[in-house]
Amino acid sequence: MALWKQLGLMVVAVALVVGWFVYEPRIFGGEAQQGHARQDTTESPAAPVSVQRVRFTGGAGTLEAIGTGRALQSVTLFPEAAGQVTDVAFQAGQRVSKDQTLLQLDSQAEELAVELARARLQAARQELARYESAAGSGAVSGNEVDAARNAVETARIQLRQAEVVLFDRTLVAPFAGVVGIPQVDAGDRVTPSTEIATLDDRSALLVDFEVAESFAASVELGDRVRATTPALPEAQYAGEVSAVASRIDPQTRTLQVRARLPNENGRLRPGMSFTVRLPLSGRTRPSVPSISIQWEREGAYVWRVTEDDTAERVGVEVRRRDEAWVLVEAPLEEGERIVSEGMQRMRPGVPVKIQSDDQGPQVATEPGDGV
Asked: CusB-like beta-barrel domain: from which residue to which, for each copy (predicted)?
């Protein structure tokens, strides 16, 4: 009887094991498959972002640069000779004309030298006349006549030299302009290295400034400019580009440009600082929000939203920026969506959800001379 019970228990155990292998995949395998199905059908949540649209701008851009004004002509005056000052014939800030006398040195000895040279020239001419009259009768040889002619020429040169020395005793204005403060007084002794005063032609001012290499081809002679100076903040001065350098500076990658500002009323003075604004007509470029620019070791980039609402990274080269917008060099099309908020969640291919799409017009200019 005990043996029969043992055999019965063994049959029941075998049946339980067989049943386990038959039904376990259906129970646990089904649940696993359902779990996998639920996992496969669960999508990654879309990243909420705000976007703004790309616009192409640049035609109405303005370049802004800082420069220092200098006179149309400017010189520091020195005497041609040493001597004692007998007269200072100008006052500080006086407008003078070309060749106007500014300073006189003692010249008594030089005046006597001129008189003596004139007398010698007169005597040489009279002697030449007598010799030429007598040459026809044979009383004077041809050699004597030639010698008399040479004497006249020598006397004429000596007179000219004496006149030059006398002229150097007077300092005159080389061009019309405004003289500065005199550095000498009557009675002072001066030498050719003694500074007398400055002279500036302020009828116009020249302002040199620099333009970035990327805009060098946009600047031409005659381009109109507008300038302001902190010395006269209420005024704005219109001028034009009067000179453009022939080459790009390899160190700064800039082009030197010179503007000419009319100054008929004389309010502008050399040495003033100026902010020069030059409209540029260069080619248009894509403009993106400044807050959308991201940086990494390789350079700058932005996140573009593709047509299927996923994130795509686009490398950009920054050209010009203002407070809100940046002009860039990049493979972007007008109207494309650029992420302006929510960049921290961006990865290539990540789905995005547009929460705000600013499609309004934007104003992008090129106000700076560099980034």
From this structure: 207-278
Q: Which residues contact 325 (CB under 8 A, 6 or more apart)?
A: 57, 287, 288, 289, 290, 362, 363, 364
Question: Any idea where the domains of the chain sit in the sequence?
Answer: 48-60+283-358, 63-71+203-279, 107-168
Residue 58 has what pLDDT? 60
25: number of Cβ within 10 Å: 11
What are the φ/ψ torsions at residue 23 (nearest 5 degrees)? -100, -20
Q: For the structural domain made of 107-168, what CATH number should be given?
A: 1.10.287
Lowest-confidence range among 116-120, 244-248, 329-333, 361-365? 361-365
Task: Give the length of the chain.
Answer: 371
Return the CATH superfamily for domain 63-71+203-279.
Efflux pump adaptor protein, beta barrel domain (2.40.30.170)
Query: Worst-scoring range by mean pLDDT, 89-93, 343-347, 348-352, 364-368?
Result: 364-368
Q: Residue 367: name the closest of 2, 164, 157, 66 by CA.
A: 66
Q: Over the stretch 300-324, which tens digit does the pLDDT of each residue have?
A: 999 999 999 999 999 999 877 766 8
| Alpha-carbon distances, residue 349 vs 245, 306, 331, 365 (angstroms) | 49, 9, 18, 33
Nearest to 227 by CA among 280, 281, 278, 263: 278
